[in-house]
Amino acid sequence: MRHGTPPSLLAALAVPGAACLSLFFLLPLGIVAAESLAGGGAGYARLAARAEFWTGLRNTLALGVTSGLVSVAVGFAVALHLSRMTEARRTALLLLVSLPLTFSGLIVAFGFILAWGRAGFFTLSLQALFGVDPASFARFVYSPQGLAFVYAYFLIPRVVMLLLPVLVNFDRAQLAAAESLGATRLRALAAILLPQVAPSALVAFCLVVAVAFGAYGTALALVGSGQANILPLQLFTMVSDAGADWPETAALALVLTALCSVVMAAGEIASTRREAAHASGA
User: Fold this and answer.
1) pLDDT of 186
2) Measuring CA to CA, which of 6, 188, 242, 245 is 20 to 30 A from 159?
3) What is the CATH number of domain 12-281?
């Protein structure tokens, strides 16, 4: 009879991970939480009293949801196409798809300015071909809608990475059987493929929404801290200000952290329940 791993060894193996979690997450989070509660939590009251905060919250939610929906839709299509390829071609193209993940927010913003800015390649090409006004067209890149478009550039690869294993392992014989019984291709995809991919797609959506909530480098480089009122840029401005109200700044940091955590937790819970319901139904 084989014996299991001694509890003392398991505890020793967990020490490095626990130390990193404590030093680089729990301790900083505790310090920020303590700072936010200075003065009896008045920083939260001052934060809630600012109309700019509520506008930034609405813009952040809209930006995250919009970029998340676009990323999941495009990422699903890309992952579905890659899953139909041979392994060698899929691996080669996957390297290109994942390339945006290696870029910093500054590089992404600079690239979009070069491509879609007032003097960008695509903007000037549209001017030469169709007479499009570069100034009017380039405003899109610097608008909140343009931010969602730019965010999707580095969010789509994350969706592809999460959905591709599910689609590669999907049994396509189910689709063939449905079509042989008279279902159209679209009907087969909607009734058979999508329900099985939905839990992973929901997790991917919540992940990219949480990333969009917390991202600020691309928005800062693209539109600046004063042109886009979103919570990450508000936090950046408050931290950069030497005379900032630190309890209020800490409160905003915790609100943003809680917002991302709630989105991620909701995705995991909903996905787990959906998978459990699907398994019980099967």
Assistant:
1) 87
2) 188
3) 1.10.3720.10
Q: Where are the domains of the chain?
A: 12-281
Model confidence, pTM: 0.87
In this model, does residue 147 exceed pLDDT 90? no
Q: Residue 229: what pLDDT?
A: 87
User: How many Cβ atoms from other residues are within 10 Å of residue 75's Cβ?
Assistant: 26
Mean pLDDT for all residues in the chain: 88
